[in-house]
Design brief:
The protein is an alpha+beta fold and 185 residues long. The chain has 5 helices and 12 strands.
Length: 185
Amino acid sequence: MTAEVKSAYSLLREIEARSQQYAFGIPQKVSVRRTWSGIGFRLGEVLLVADLDAVDEIMRIPHYTKIPSALPWVVGLANVRGILLPVMDLNAYINKQASKQGRSTRVLVVRNGDNFTGLLVDEVFGIRHFFSEDHSGNAQDIATELSGYLTGSYLQHGKTWNIFSMDLLTERDEFINIAAHGAQK
């Protein structure tokens, strides 16, 4: 080897030694925890979460027109960007008690095929993330009226979030048929 090659080689070995002295260690293998995400909302005092894909939009209560002879849980019909949106009070439909509309009241827009429906809920908490190991196949602490729409629950920070199925709701004939029974008499 020539002196020039030896010095270049020595320089490279020196750089390698310094690099290893100040280098961070190789990243440790970290276990990845699987998560599930949904839209968190409140109905009365019950915390619920719906699949993220089931909710198209979250909005404030739009201006709406009352529908004569409609069932009590039908709030009205709104024109939202050129789409007629029926707005339903989810609490009145399920628990037979109208929601108290306030500053935190929101409308969840859900789709069933080509049809959109606005669901009035007491409050929306936005996107919630849950670890898969916190999932339970059973709903927790729920009245029987609501239990037919639930598919399980998550426990997070000591609070139970029951999973609300928008599909179970929007596929029910009694939900789809909004004509008042009294109008048929």
